[in-house]
Amino acid sequence: MKKGQMLIITAIVMLVSLGAVLMWNEGGITKEVTIGQTQADIFETFAIGQTINNYLGDAAEISICNAMHLTGLTWKDEPLPEEEAIIKISFENFFRDNLAVYIAAFPPIKKTSLEDEYSLYTNLFFHSEFDYDNKVIKGGPDKVVYNHAYGYDPVADESLYETFEFVDYLEILSDDGYIYKLRPLYSIEFPTEFFDHFKTARDWTSGTQEGMPEGFESIETTGETTNQVLAITELRCLGKNVEIIFTP
Fold first, then answer.
1. What is the pLDDT of residue 33?
2. E strand segments, the chain
3. What is the pTM of this model?
4. CB 95 within 8 A of CB 151
5. pLDDT digit string (tens) for 95-131?
6. Fewer CB within 10 A of the terminal residue: the chain, N end or C end?
7. 30 and 71: one domain?
8. Is residue 97 part of a domain?
9. Distances from the Cα of 160 to the Cα of 144, 145, 184, angstroms
């Protein structure tokens, strides 16, 4: 086989091998790669991205549990709201607050833009969406929109600016000087049936629900003066049944 043919075949094999690596960007990792870059750099960046994705997924799972427990206690000393939207907003706020705490707690990674404390939290605008129809919560970098001033119009007496818009990302600088863009993502199942328990518990206290409602281990009225309702659901999170406590 001629030398030129061998070089062409070798180049094709290398490109196919590199292409197999680059197709691994479905997990929320987007890389800007220069041909000739070492595959070790690519795999190292991929590993960092997967570590972040796995961490965010676990953090989101725990945040769901915390949000369910906290939402169940929100109306401990007052009646449950009639509007389901209010309960959902409460849950979503608790979820985002908890997830932000876990994102801030992500450990530093040396030789990256995440080498400082709280760097994942301070370097990334993160957004979570609640898909109630498909029972899933998805999260990823948020869209960033900002105005860049570049001058002043004395006639109109106003600043001149242009709008920049992009999806946020993390930048990882390798030892060889290559810059990688990471866009961490997570997608987890969302137990939307949790919200049905509030209506069921409210119906039970009004007398329209007889016997033990489906989805509960027990519902009882406690206290001699407050008549506080303790509704223990069959939903378990973080090793504990989710409780709904309210005062009719």
1. 55
2. 29-30, 126-131, 136-141, 143-153, 158-167, 170-173, 179-182, 186-189, 216-222, 228-237, 240-246
3. 0.75
4. no
5. 999 999 999 999 888 767 788 888 888 888 889 999 9
6. N
7. yes
8. yes
9. 20, 16, 34
Does an H or E element contain 7, and which?
Answer: helix 3-22
Give pLDDT tens digits for 182-234: 889 999 999 999 999 999 999 888 877 677 889 999 998 886 666 889 999 99
pLDDT attached to residue 11: 36
Instruction: Please tell me whether residues 211 and 113 are part of one structural domain.
Output: no
Burial 28-58 (b: 16+ CB within 10 A, else e): bbebeeeeebeeebbebbbebbeebbebbbe
How many residues does this entry show for the chain?
Answer: 248
What is the reported pLDDT for 24?
A: 35
Residues 196 and 178 in one domain: no
The 8-class DSSP code of residue 173 comes to: E
Q: How far apart are CA 72 and CA 126, in angstroms?
A: 26
* Same domain, yes or no: 113 and 200: no
Rounded to 5 degrees, φ, ψ at 180 are -115, 140
> 60 is in which domain, residue-wise?
12-126+172-185
The answer to the question of residue 248 being in a domain is: yes
Under 8 Å between Cβ of 65 and 238: yes
Instruction: Please check whether residues 181 and 235 belong to one and the same domain.
Output: no
Residue 76, judged by CB atoms within 10 A of its CB (0-12, 13-18, 19+), counts as middle
Are 234 and 180 within one domain? no
144 within some domain: no
**117 in the same domain as 196:** no
